[in-house]
From TrEMBL:
InterPro entries: PPR5-like, PPR_rpt, TPR-like_helical_dom_sf. Belongs to the PPR family. P subfamily. The keyword Repeat applies. GO terms for molecular function: mRNA binding. Keywords: Repeat. Residues 72-109 are annotated as: Disordered. Pfam families: PPR (PF01535), PPR_2 (PF13041). This is Pentatricopeptide repeat-containing protein At5g48730, chloroplastic. Residues 93-104 have a biased composition (Low complexity).
Length: 563
């Protein structure tokens, strides 16, 4: 039936190649202008050739040599295909792509390539339109946000002038974006800018979309408590009730915290009793913990014991926060027996396990008192118990080793931090700068200060105090002048502690005129001298034998005590 399989397949290959070569003329690649179509055709051509060659090999194994594949079949004549239509010249076509009529008469390559290109082009146009629409919407949202922020800024500036306060109540101030106003309020609350926060809150209440929210009131009351504004916190609490907000134990706890932070313990305990008698507002462990912390802040341990007893009567068990607060306060007060007994009581509780805060409070207590070995033992015990240290832990270790002049151990801690990629904070830099300053290594101290600034960590008052103290001990007056020039070109908020350090440094070096200039600087910055300021200046004048100035300053101290 098949006298010569190999020759039949060989002729089939040659005929197929002839068809492909003739069809290649149908593909008007120049007119389509797409190199990708040309590549697709060549890929098809080579694929077809390889496929047919493999078919020839599979069917004709063992036949004549491979050279016979190139012989033509003399007895049969391949059917000739009709000649492909001659494509129109490029200038006759209506555009870059051929018309639909010419595409339909073209071969398989022309029609498929044109359809594929048209689909890709449509998708590309659709994607571009979608991107343009999204970009336009983002731009409009940004513009609305900027406009709303500008409106808030303008309205807040108006409040500074009484003559135009009424303009704030116009229609424009009532149509601000909710998100913008709430973000502005949150930023001020977080920064403890209580005056500006209250102005934004009043602006919030004037908006057409405003609805009273107890969560916003609670955040404001907590902020006012931190800023020592208990009267305003109480006024907001009353406004919250008047506006019909839900008053729960969180609201009462926020007000208790405001009273406690300001040392108004009578009002705080009175409000605590009121909570006990108000259904749904009973105090919980967080209420007691906050009040205990306020009492411990002034070392009122008697009130703390009464609160712990009250908790036991109410059936409220201390939690980890309560125990950590007690351990930290006992450690700072040097009451190590109470601290250790509290820690043991905490360990005996099944649902109250120590954490990294417990660890930090314990090692800080022993480290600050110079008990380095005990501190190291506690550190190892906490680690073996599964408590992992954090950056605050290493800052405490660095500070303790630095004050104990254990510089080798201090270096080991820094190497450990570098090995395990603990990023330094402003506290870390302050601790290390102060340690090198105490050691008299001004070169290393200045290097760390430059490194701190290069890493965009902003120096604070503690940093500058360490520099000034070190320069004062070394008698480097010019270096202190450099610190003052840095302050002039920065926005560091200076406090009374820095000015007292500056006065002490100048007094040590006998620079009495510069010391008097510090008082003028304090007056310009609105910082009033305290007892430490005057006592430091008295020591400096006494060392220099200027008794007249000593008498004047002593009188100033007496007048300050009377006021």
């Amino acid at each position: 039936m098949y006298p010569n399989k190999r020759e039949d397949v060989d002729h089939l290959i040659l005929d197929s190649l002839s068809v492909l070569i003739q069809s290649s003329r149908w593909l008007d690649l120049q007119r389509i202008g797409d190199k990708k179509a040309e590549g697709n055709f060549l890929h098809l051509f080579y694929g077809f050739f390889i496929h047919m060659a493999s078919l020839s090999t599979a069917q004709c194994l063992g036949s004549t040599s491979i050279s016979s594949a190139y012989r033509r079949r003399p007895e049969t004549k391949a059917k000739s295909l009709p000649a492909p239509p001659t494509p129109k010249p490029a200038e006759e076509s209506s555009g870059v792509f051929p018309s639909s009529s010419s595409s339909s008469t073209a071969g398989f390559g022309n029609a498929d390539a044109t359809n594929a290109l048209t689909l890709v082009e449509k998708n590309r146009i659709k994607i571009n339109k979608e991107k343009e629409r999204e970009a336009r919407e983002r731009k409009e949202e940004v513009n609305r946000k900027i406009a709303s922020k500008k409106a808030i800024s303008v309205i807040l500036r108006r409040e500074a002038t009484k003559a135009v306060i009424e303009k704030k109540k116009g229609t424009n101030s009532k149509k601000l974006l909710p998100r913008t106003v709430l973000e502005a309020l949150h930023e001020r609350i977080k920064a403890l800018r209580w005056e500006s926060a209250l102005k934004v809150f009043e602006l919030l209440r004037e908006q057409l979309w405003y609805r009273p929210n107890s969560g916003i009131y609670i955040k404001l009351i907590v902020m006012l408590g931190k800023c020592k504004q208990p009267e305003r916190a109480h006024a907001l609490f009353q406004n919250m009730i008047d506006e019909g907000c839900i008053v729960n134990h969180e609201s009462y706890t926020a007000l208790v915290s405001a009273y406690g932070r300001s040392g108004l313990f009578d009002q705080a305990f009175s409000l605590l009793n009121r909570m006990k008698n108000t259904p749904g507002c009973e105090p919980d462990v967080y209420t007691y913990s906050i009040l205990i912390k306020s009492c411990l802040h002034v070392f009122d341990f008697d009130r703390v014991q009464s609160l712990l007893l009250d908790m036991a009567i109410q059936g409220i068990k201390p939690n980890t926060i309560t125990y950590n607060t007690l351990i930290d306060a006992y450690g700072k007060a040097g009451r190590f027996e109470e601290m250790e007994s509290t820690l043991m009581e905490m360990l005996n509780q099944q649902d109250c396990q120590p954490d990294v805060w417990t660890m930090n409070s314990t090692i800080r207590a022993f480290g600050s008192s110079g008990q380095i070995e005990t501190m190291e033992k506690c550190y190892e015990k906490f680690k073996s118990a599964g408590v992992n240290p954090n950056i605050k832990t290493f800052n405490i270790l660095l500070d303790s080793y630095g004050k104990a002049k254990s510089y080798e151990k201090m270096g080991a801690v820094m190497e450990y931090m570098q090995k395990y990629y603990y990023s330094w904070t402003v506290v870390t830099y302050n601790v290390v700068i102060d340690a090198f300053g105490r050691a008299g290594d001004l070169k290393q101290m200045e290097y760390l200060f430059r490194l701190m600034r290069s890493e965009r960590i902003k120096p604070n008052c503690v940093t500058l105090c360490s520099l000034v103290r070190a320069y004062g001990r070394a008698g480097a007056v010019d270096k202190i002048g450099g610190v003052l020039r840095f302050i002039e070109n920065s926005d560091v908020m200076l406090d009374i502690v820095f000015f007292n350090c500056l006065i002490d440094a100048y007094g040590r070096m006998g620079c009495l005129s510069e010391m008097r200039e510090v008082l003028e600087m304090m007056e310009r910055r609105g910082c009033k001298p305290d007892k430490i300021t005057y006592s430091t200046m008295i020591k400096a004048y006494s060392r220099s034998g200027i008794t007249s100035r000593v008498k004047e300053l002593q009188d100033a101290v007496i007048r300050k005590e009377d006021t």
